[in-house]
Structure formats: structure tokens, C-alpha cells
């Protein structure tokens, strides 16, 4: 093999790596975003379905590391879903925990102001709990995802083109 052949071969390998690494990073960011949105959506659906099936009130809230509901609305630090037997929207020992999700890495969840509790009633509704949660990563608005909960209890996801995701800018 000549030096010219070796140089051409190395140039081809370098080009392949240069083109492949950014797309691999993008794929990883996409997967992280999809997994986080899917988990959050599923946990809210679990809260709603449990409220209906057990004829009970359930709550989803940002969680402290000790397992209780956080006073602030820092959803990216983790969340708790529980059956709220006494109706105070706070988890106490003895109330069944349905799900506890940990902190999200390299993602931010911007929630609706003053919506640090989502409560589902036995009919599946969430009156007073309508909220929009915007999931952001380092790529900003173009790759944001939203989870929206209506007062009727309907939970849905939207993509960036369907609604402005200005929460990623802050």
C-alpha cells in the first residue's frame, strides 16, 4: 500500500466519522426526549386511569428526594403519582404510591405557572388542573415536546410545530 492510498483511506474514514458523530448525538438526544415525554405521559395516564378504576382521587406532583410533593414546580427533578385518600393533594404515609420517577438528565420541564399538582377525580376529570408541560433540551424550541392536560382529564402530546414552545427560551 502506498502513502497516497493510505492518505485517501484515512480521509474517507475521517469523513465518515465527521458525518456520523453528529447524527449519533442527535439520535441520543431524540431518544432521551422521547423516553422522558413518554414516561411522563404514561404516569399521568396511570393517575387518571387509577382514579377511574378505583373510584378515587389521584395526584401527580413534583417530588422531593424524600418522596413527598415539592412546594415548587420543578418537574424535571422527578415526580410522584399517588392515590390521595384524604383529598389534601399531599402524599402521606399510608396513601398508595402509584409511581415515583427520578430526575431527568439534561432536560427541563417548564410547567404552567401555579400548577404544581395535578388532581384526577373518579370520573377521570382534572378540574382546576389544566396544564401544559414543555420538555426542552439543549437544542431549544425546534425539538421541544409538550404534554397537555385539559380540565376534562384528556392528556395529549404535541410536537414543536403545533404550538410555540417559548418556555425553552427561559
Name the descriptors.
170 residues; minor pseudopilin epsh fold; four-stranded antiparallel beta sheet; 30% helix; elongated
Overview of the molecule:
- The protein has 170 residues and is of the alpha+beta class.
- The chain has a single domain (3-169), classed as minor pseudopilin epsh domain (minor pseudopilin epsh fold, 3-Layer(bab) Sandwich).
- The protein is 30% helix and 21% strand.
- The chain has one helix spanning 3-53; strands at residues 58-62, 79-83, 97-101, 108-110, 118-120, 131-136, 145-149, 155-158.
- A four-stranded antiparallel β-sheet has the order 3-2-1-5, with helices on one face.
- A hairpin with a 5-residue loop joins β7 and β8 (155-158).
- The longest helix is centred in the N-terminal third of the chain and has 51 residues, at 3-53.
- The radius of gyration is 21 Å and the shape is elongated.
- It starts with a helix and ends in a 12-residue tail after the last strand.
- The model has no long low-confidence stretch (mean pLDDT 85).
